[in-house]
């Protein structure tokens, strides 16, 4: 008998795209709200964004069951941190915790493609981007998910800073104003919805700045 | 209590059917500085006296937040209290994770009590030397429980533990019938007054007491010193008018205190206790 392949997979891909952009004193995190499986839509109204700490928000696309489990795990760890340290976790600290949590399951990974966004201890915007097993990097902007191949080149075109080897040293965060960054994100998702079948329905945008966390929604193509 | 031949082990019964090691553990609670709790239909207030070993040191933490809806005040070996608080916090987090809802207080105190009971029936363990006043809110309302080292737990409308707690208990006994319908602010005031009873003459300042509140729409939190001092200031004036009543109350309380502590409160607090 020839070698049999598994006909059951523990994973599924629920599609969708996530984006995060860091600014001088704000951070924009956005994700669409469509949840699909195969060529079907499961729901048009599912949030992929989760607030982990006061100044730290995570958006994840991939297998939403794993995403939910990951969010719950991080929320519980944050509670323990608060009991022990009497303060909220900073965004860079949460970034490291997320990386460790993902690598912990290196041999049965969370099928979750994450972007973490927030403000660091000085109030500057920061974005961290991950792969499924925890490799991460601090960047000025990032996208993950089914639409990322369409979104990332556009963000590179608009936001990429000149080479870090050039002097004077340029910040990774964009010099754009908050309203301009939100506008850019809306444009990017409108474009992605055109060609990526898994991205659409509604866009959820979360903005973190010194005043706190704000949320807004925008309609996307429903086809 | 005097030394006898049945008190070496926690697993040895006395002929009278007593476990002396467990009773000695309860003595440790009586040596700690006072902690009080009282509840209304919608709020629970915890208060404690802060005793520092010397003027140079800070006082030990005696009130711990366990979850948004549960807090605990301890008296006795604070190290044991800290460990039990960590256990309680863990249990709340695990329950929330599994059931996406807050752990009912009644369940938590049973788990705590069972944990304490284990230490009364193992020859290689010793009982926890700390009494816990657990304050919490759940679907069935506001609750105040007392967990003791023996593994027993009781629900109370109001209670006080630790040294000179009899004075506070007397005060609470006089007033407890009004607590159910008390407003949140009146409850806090009563808590501070109960603490004042345990100080027996010492001036009441916000630096020597800690107050914490949990209630409907109000997650568990410790009140900051400024707020507490303001409340103290409002009734220190009233207290002067109440002078004659307070003096009579204190005499009765002093007699009660001497009887139940066997005169050992003046030897000084053991370094590990608070």
From TrEMBL, chain A:
Entry-linked Pfam families: Proteasome (PF00227)
Keywords: Cytoplasm, Nucleus, Proteasome
Broad class of where this protein is predominantly found: cytoplasm
Keyword Ligase: no
Subcellular location as annotated: Cytoplasm; Nucleus
GO CC terms in record: cytoplasm; nucleus; proteasome core complex
Gene Ontology BP, a term: proteolysis involved in protein catabolic process
Keyword Nucleus: yes
Function: Component of the proteasome, a multicatalytic proteinase complex which is characterized by its ability to cleave peptides with Arg, Phe, Tyr, Leu, and Glu adjacent to the leaving group at neutral or slightly basic pH. The proteasome has an ATP-dependent proteolytic activity.
PANTHER family, sorted: METALLOPROTEASE TLDD (PTHR32194), PROTEASOME SUBUNIT BETA TYPE-1 (PTHR32194:SF2)
Assigned protein family: Belongs to the peptidase T1B family.
Quaternary structure and interacting proteins, as annotated: Component of the proteasome complex. Component of the 20S core complex of the 26S proteasome. The 26S proteasome is composed of a core protease (CP), known as the 20S proteasome, capped at one or both ends by the 19S regulatory particle (RP/PA700). The 20S proteasome core is composed of 28 subunits that are arranged in four stacked rings, resulting in a barrel-shaped structure. The two end rings are each formed by seven alpha subunits, and the two central rings are each formed by seven beta subunits. The catalytic chamber with the active sites is on the inside of the barrel.
Name used for this protein in its record: Proteasome subunit beta
Automatic annotation (TrEMBL), chain B:
Low complexity bias (residue ranges): 245-263
One Pfam assignment: Proteasome_A_N
SUPFAM superfamilies, per database record: N-terminal nucleophile aminohydrolases (Ntn hydrolases)
BP-aspect Gene Ontology terms: ubiquitin-dependent protein catabolic process
Major subcellular site: cytoplasm
Region (Disordered): 244-274
GO-annotated cellular components: cytoplasm; nucleus; proteasome core complex, alpha-subunit complex
Compartments where found: Cytoplasm; Nucleus
Gene3D superfamilies documented for this protein: Glutamine Phosphoribosylpyrophosphate, subunit 1, domain 1
Keyword set, alphabetical order: Cytoplasm, Nucleus, Proteasome
Coiled-coil positions: none
Keyword Nucleus attributed: yes
Ranges where the Proteasome alpha-type subunits domain occurs: 6-28
Entry-linked CDD domains: proteasome_alpha_type_1
Function comment: The proteasome is a multicatalytic proteinase complex which is characterized by its ability to cleave peptides with Arg, Phe, Tyr, Leu, and Glu adjacent to the leaving group at neutral or slightly basic pH.
Family: Belongs to the peptidase T1A family.
Subunit structure: Component of the 20S core complex of the 26S proteasome. The 26S proteasome is composed of a core protease (CP), known as the 20S proteasome, capped at one or both ends by the 19S regulatory particle (RP/PA700). The 20S proteasome core is composed of 28 subunits that are arranged in four stacked rings, resulting in a barrel-shaped structure. The two end rings are each formed by seven alpha subunits, and the two central rings are each formed by seven beta subunits. The catalytic chamber with the active sites is on the inside of the barrel. The 20S proteasome core is composed of 28 subunits that are arranged in four stacked rings, resulting in a barrel-shaped structure. The two end rings are each formed by seven alpha subunits, and the two central rings are each formed by seven beta subunits.
Protein name (Swiss-Prot/TrEMBL): Proteasome subunit alpha type
Organism: Hibiscus trionum
């Amino acid at each position: 008998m020839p070698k049999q392949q598994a006909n059951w997979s523990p994973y599924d891909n629920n599609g969708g795209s996530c984006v995060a952009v860091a600014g001088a004193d704000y951070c924009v995190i956005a994700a669409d709200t469509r949840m699909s499986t195969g060529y079907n839509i499961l729901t048009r109204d599912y949030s992929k964004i989760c607030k982990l700490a006061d100044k730290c928000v995570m958006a994840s696309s991939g297998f939403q069951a794993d995403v939910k489990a990951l969010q719950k795990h991080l929320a519980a760890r944050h509670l323990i941190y608060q009991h022990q340290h009497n303060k909220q976790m900073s965004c860079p600290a949460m970034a490291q915790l997320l990386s460790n949590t993902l690598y912990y399951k290196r041999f049965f990974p969370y099928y979750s493609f994450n972007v973490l966004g927030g403000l660091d201890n000085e109030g500057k915007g920061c974005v961290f981007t991950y792969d499924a097993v925890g490799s991460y990097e601090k960047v000025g902007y990032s996208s993950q998910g089914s639409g990322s191949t369409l979104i990332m080149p556009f963000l590179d075109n608009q936001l990429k800073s000149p080479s870090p080897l050039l002097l004077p040293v340029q910040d990774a965060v964009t010099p754009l104003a908050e309203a301009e960054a939100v506008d850019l994100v809306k444009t990017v998702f409108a474009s992605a919805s055109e060609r990526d079948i898994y991205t659409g329905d509604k866009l959820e945008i979360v903005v973190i700045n010194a005043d706190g966390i704000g949320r807004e929604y925008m309609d996307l193509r429903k086809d | 209590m005097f030394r006898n031949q049945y008190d070496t082990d926690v697993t040895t019964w006395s002929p009278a059917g007593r476990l002396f090691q467990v009773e000695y553990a309860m003595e440790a609670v009586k040596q700690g500085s006072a902690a009080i709790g009282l509840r209304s239909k919608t709020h629970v207030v915890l208060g404690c006296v802060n005793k520092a070993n010397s003027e140079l040191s800070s006082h030990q933490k005696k009130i711990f937040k366990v979850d948004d809806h549960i807090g605990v005040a301890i008296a006795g070996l604070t190290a044991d209290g800290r460990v039990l608080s960590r256990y309680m916090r863990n249990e709340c987090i695990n329950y929330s994770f599994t059931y996406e809802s807050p752990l009912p207080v009644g369940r938590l105190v049973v788990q705590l009590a069972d944990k304490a009971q284990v230490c009364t029936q193992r020859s290689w363990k010793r009982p926890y030397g700390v009494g816990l006043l657990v304050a919490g809110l759940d679907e069935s309302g506001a609750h105040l429980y007392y967990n003791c080292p023996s593994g027993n737990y009781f629900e109370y409308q109001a209670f006080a533990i630790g040294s000179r707690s009899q004075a506070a208990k007397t005060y609470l006994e006089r007033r407890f019938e009004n607590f159910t319908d008390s407003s949140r602010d009146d409850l806090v005031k009563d808590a501070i007054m109960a603490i004042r009873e345990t100080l027996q003459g010492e001036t009441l300042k916000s630096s020597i007491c800690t107050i914490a509140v949990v209630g409907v729409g109000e997650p568990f939190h410790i009140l900051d010193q400024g707020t507490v001092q303001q409340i103290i200031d409002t009734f220190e004036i009233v207290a002067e008018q109440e002078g004659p009543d307070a003096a009579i109350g204190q005499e009765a309380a002093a007699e009660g205190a001497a009887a139940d502590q066997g005169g050992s409160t003046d030897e000084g607090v053991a370094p590990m206790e608070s």
